[in-house]
Amino acid sequence: MNPTFHFLRSTAAMLTTGAALLFATSCQKESNNPNNETAGTERNNAHVESVTKSGGKSVCYVEVNSNSLANTGKYTLTTGGQQLFDIAIIFAANINYNTTTKKAVLSNNPNVTSVLVNRATQIVPLQNKGMKVLLSILGNHQGAGFCNFTSRAAAKAFAQQLSDTVTYYGLDGIDFDDEYAEYGVNNTPQPNDSSFVILVDELRKLMPTKIISFYYYGPAASRLSWGGKRVGDMVDYSWNAIYGSYSVPNVAGLPKSKLAPAAVDIQSTSQSTANSLATQTKNNGYGVYLWYNLTSTDKHVYFSGVSNILYGSSVTYTP
C-alpha cells in the first residue's frame, strides 16, 4: 500500500499503522448476494422506543470483523434512560469491481454477512430501542468507487443494489466512505465530477425516507455538486474523518444540526480530547458527535465525560 494513503479510522498520529491493518482486512472481502440468503424485512413486534434526548445525536461505527454491533445498545443515559448512540454503523461492506462485466458490485465479507443474516439478534434489538442501523460502504482496492461511474445507468444500477440490501435486511440507510477504491486499478476510470452526485441522487430516489450519510473524506469530498444538484441537499448527515480532531465537513446544504466536526476513536482518543471536542461541538451549535471502534469493553466512564457535556447526564452500562 502507498504509505501516504490515509487510514480511514485513525488519528493523524496512527495513519501508517492503521492503513496496513485495514488493507489486510479489506482484501478478505467476499461477494454476497442478499437474494440468496433467508432474511426478513419486518421488525419484531416489540414496542419501539425512541431516542429523544436533547444535545444532538451520537453516531458509532463498529468494526464487525472483530466486534459485535450489539455492543452499541448497552449504553444509556443515567438520567432519562435514553440510548447513548442514536445511530450504529456496520463497518463495512465493499464496492467491488467485476472484471468480466466491468461493473461495480456490492460485496459483504463473512462477518458483515453474519450481522445481516442474524439481524434478529444484531439489528432488530437496536432498532427496537429507537436506534438506527446503517451499512457503511467502502472501497476495496479494485478500482471501483463512488466517483468513477461514467453513466447514470451504471450509478443507478449500483444504487439499486444498495437500496435492495437496505430493504431486504430491514436497515435504516447507507453510509458512504470513499476510501481504498484505488481508482485506475483494473483499467477503471479516474474520478469525475458527476459520478458521486448522480449516485446519491439515484439512491435518494430509491430510498426517499431512509438515511444517507457521508464520511467526509476521499475524492468524493471535493465532488459534491454537479448539474445544479448538491450532495448536501440529498444526504442526511456528514462527519469529520480524522479521529481526535475537530473539523467541520464542508458539505453545502447541510445545516449545523446534521454535521459532526468532532470525531473520536474510542480506543485511542484521550478523555481530555474527547471532552474538549464535545465542548466545541456544543458551544458551536453542531448536532452530531462521531464515535469509532466500540469493542466489548465497558467504556461508560469514558462516555460519561462526553455525555455530561452534551446531554447533562452520565452513562450507564448494561451488559
Automatic annotation (TrEMBL):
Polar residues biased stretches: 29-43
InterPro entries assigned to the protein according to its UniProt record, in alphabetical order: Endoglyc_H (IPR054861), GH (IPR017853), Glyco_hydro18_cat (IPR001223), Glyco_hydro_18_chit_AS (IPR001579)
Matches recorded under SUPFAM superfamilies: (Trans)glycosidases
GH18 domain mapped to chain residues: 56-313
Pfam family, one: Glyco_hydro_18
Region (Disordered): 29-51
Keywords: Glycosidase, Hydrolase, Signal
Signal sequence annotation: 1-24
Source superkingdom: Bacteria
NCBIfam families per record: Endoglyc_H
Stated family: Belongs to the glycosyl hydrolase 18 family.
Record's protein name: Endo-beta-N-acetylglucosaminidase family protein
